[in-house]
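ERR on first pass: missing label on line 2. Operator R.T. fixed the label and resubmitted. Corrected input:
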Amino acid sequence: MTRDRRLSWINGLLLPLFNVLTAFLATGIVFLLIGVDPIEATKILIYGALGYDEGLGYTLYYATNFVFTGLAVAVAFHAGLFNIGGEGQAYVGGLGIALVALYINPALSAWIVIPLAISGGLLFGALWAIIPAYLQAYRGSHIVITTIMFNFLASALMVYMLVHVLREVGNMTPESTNFPDVVWLPFVHDVFAGFGYNIAKSPLNLSILVALFFSFLVWFFLWHTRWGFAIRATGKSNDAAIYGGINPKKIIIVTMCISGALAGLVGVNELIGVQHRLFLNFNYGYGFGGIAVALMGRNHPVGILIAAFLFGILYQGGAELDFELQNVSRDIVVVMQGLVILFCGGLEYLYRPVLMRFLAPIEASE
Amino acid sequence: MDQSNIAIELIDVDKHFGAVYANDKVNLSVKTGTIHGIVGENGAGKSTLMSILYGFYQADSGRIKVFDKDFISTNSRQSIEAGIGMVHQHFMLVENFTVLENVILGSEDGALISESLDKARIELTRLAQEYGLEVELDVAVEELSVGMQQRVEILKGLYKGAKVLILDEPTGVLTPQESDELFRIFEALKKQGVTIILITHKLREIMSITDYVSVMRAGKMVAHRQTSETNPEELAELMIGRKVLLNIVRTEAKSGDPLLVANNLEIHNEQGIKRVSEVSFEARSGEILGIAGVTGNGQGTLLKALAGILPLSKGSIEILGETISPKRPLNPQELRNLGVAHVPEDRQRMGIISDFSASESALLGYQNDKEINQGVWLKRSLVKANCESIMEAFDVRPTNPDLKSSNFSGGNQQKLILAREFERDPEVLIIGQPTRGIDIGAIEFIRKRIIKMRDAGKAIILISVELEEIMSISDRIIVMCDGEITGTVDAAKADEATLGMMMANALPSDKKITEAQL
Amino acid sequence: MSDLFLTTVLTFDASVRVCIPLIFASMAGLFAERSGVVDIGLEGKLLMSAFIAASAASVFGSPWLGLIAGMFASSVLAMIHGFASITYKGNQIVSGVAINILASGLTMILTLAWFKSGGITPTLQGNERFLSITLPGVDIIDHIPILGVIYRELISGHNILVYLAFAIVPLVWWVVYRTRFGLRLRAVGENPKAVDTAGLSVEGLRYKALLIGGILCGIGGVYIATAYNAQFTKEMTAGQGFIALAALIFGKWHPYKVLAACFLFAFLQALAIRLQGVVIPGIGEIPVQLIEATPYILTVILLAGFIGKAIPPKASAQPYIKEL
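pass 2 clean. output:
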């Protein structure tokens, strides 16, 4: 094997694999530290997440959210942008969905209402991303800082909307009235029941198809359209993009809109899929989780589907751990997310020097 | 000759980066209290050599002696302590620091800086008087002119006790007046026994200020001379070298109408620094117009403006019936649509995208072409097939459109870029450094292809630092120096010495051959 | 009238209390960012330190041990950040995000494992936490109108960490602008190459800066859990680390200006609490959320260069790679 070939194996496969394994290993150490047998815990986790219908349903339901935010982060990464604002974009996207759901004529067909609600999420998510994008492209302010600020602004906005505007009169909790039935996405167990198969009830709903559809769309967009080409070219080399007649400023705006729109879809699953009303913090943690999912999935939709499924397992299996063991809660997932981001992101080159030395030394004779 | 008079001695110093030899068994001996010039083209290895001396890089092998003592420097601190100071080409100054703060950085006397500042103030005042290096001590460096900033760098070195001062291309950023002032300072320093090593590619400076001169070419030290016993012609020849002239058969150019006319261009680079001024020329169909010059004299900036990457500050370009002006810029995409192809100077950073597959790199700039797009769908199989066919046409090996661009050799990357740009049948071709750093076989192939395009009636503008390349394939040659055209010659009548002198703007003004005389 | 005056004094007093973690965290960020390392992980360090401090104070019965433990925990996270972003030249922002999420998860997991209760530590009793100190002379000055109230409510009656916070700002200024370390710190964040060619270690300076940041941020977390509150609760830092980051930008990386920004942002928070449900004649009820959001809005506007310009240290977020 030539050195180039070995290098591409190291960078493309070995490094990411080692990084993910290290994150798992470190999680195992955390388990040991809190006096939990990691193997025992893994067994419970896997059983809880995949061992029975209901668990699997929950797993897929959680995974759906991670697909949306993972895709959001990944699309931005392809343009060389770090969208840390998925949390806020998901939140405001939810507002867009809720506004459609609450104010649309409930007599319309679901075939019109649901796509409109989804569009509301896409639109509001994009709107929440376009200001940081504009400021980065034309005012030179750093997108990371602005998107962080916009997460907090989203939070303030949503509290205001829920407390002062959308709250039902007489209701003490800040939440909207229930959405009309027509905008509800069917639960998967109901769909199956319609065909005569009875499966356990779970929050899993047809949002998962939306997630799969958008995964496909992102894949097609990034690798099979000229705009995707322009985005990836800009992310890889700003100079080459300019040379190729691509305007990097426009790319920043377009990419962030797409990224924000994708994050805005979390509400499709949470709001019209499961809860059927708008409430506080429905988005909690999925925006940041998306960063881990994207890093682990190597920013490719297939990788993201796998990583999201894995995080779904952890979320649901974590709940099972909560139940079975006294010493550990589902928050172990958050630890794991942190470790994945650390080892697949911040420390992504940890093993490179050692792998390079043993597997691809520079030939001195060159 | 007394050995103790040697300030710096380098014996067989080697340094490579990856597979590239920057310094190849370099020997050098610099006498104490002299001004020693080191000349060579860009990339000849001068800066690397000096960075080794300054402890910024470590040599792979070889010996270094400083004032007769063996010297190994792993860190700039050791070099400073040995009495070596360096003024880098890009100043190593903290811009929002005052002059005083910059000077004491790294050689403060205690945990608090006030004492060091007071001490430095006294010392700098003394140095200023002694060498005529006056500079305001309490202003932020960013508010000083470039010439003043350079003084701060020199003062930094002297304050830290430098006996040997290395200056890397010090006049590149100076006006002629500032340069004269700098040379006056050199003389003052020399009188006080300071040894000066001057790195430059400007022959005029070597001739006017140095005592000795060493010439580097392609990482090797090729000659040492006493300045009084050499002349610019000899140095130019040593610098550029007699390279194997590839024997490319070509017919007389049948030049036709001008397809591109540049009028009085003034262009600023990405950092907003003026790099091109008062440049006018025309490129005719069926003709190769070569633009010669040492790297960094504005050719690169000119090329980018012609390709629509940089805007014009003044002047206009008439190109294929359109006029580009400061008010009416055209972007690279619009120029491509017009029939302008661009082979960029920086192959790795602009020409291809290293992480992309060959077929995607071969798409760069043409991603919006109608035949590969069907609605929103970019037809990748067609992109691949197109790439494969142009790869075959230009003998790009391996003929694998899926291979990552960075996995091709330099020559094959360049052939891929040429294939991409040439196969769309453009009318005007703007080509930068077509054969830099690639093997001889590919060079010959590429040059033949360029000539073939000429014979097909295209207007070609060729920029190259390889004088030999310019001479062997151009029909007309423009020479640039410091952003201006210093000469225009008919390629058939050009000789290397004259061009070399023009490149250094060292030609006596009455001998300048101007457009008007042709 | 005197009612309004007392309310004003009390609002300021509340601002002071809210301000303290912001000061520690933003000074921590100041060291990191002045050295050229972006520190998104302030939030995580505050949270981790709050948790460890509350745990240690509870287990060992001493807030001082809590303080030491908190500073240590925060420093460990700072060193992880350094390892990723200085030694391994990784993405500083990604690494900072990892620190935040890791802290969020670990505090939850460890509260459960150590104290059998998800997200909280035992309540600290009496002298297990930092208590208010009554400054001498309160009784004497108390009868003086205006001044007495200000002295009693605003100046006296805080815990030791509050006074430490206000003492630390001039100290930071002095270190940054008057010492050799400060000079080198400022240099390495602006032009690491200048520092390298002056024969100094870029990496060493950045590690030192992050360590100092870790310790300072740690004190901020200790304050939150053992002085402002009397236990650790889930996500109790509630974005303070990010507000500190905003204050750091708003104060343009200068200690006194950052202090002013911290106080402004703290005041807005205190005001938001004070104005909850209050109807102002002629204006109506000001939405609390708007006041709460103001620090972020101001920072965004400043960053966009609409009012002045916040220019970060030039080398910020760039790993130092040695090349010419």
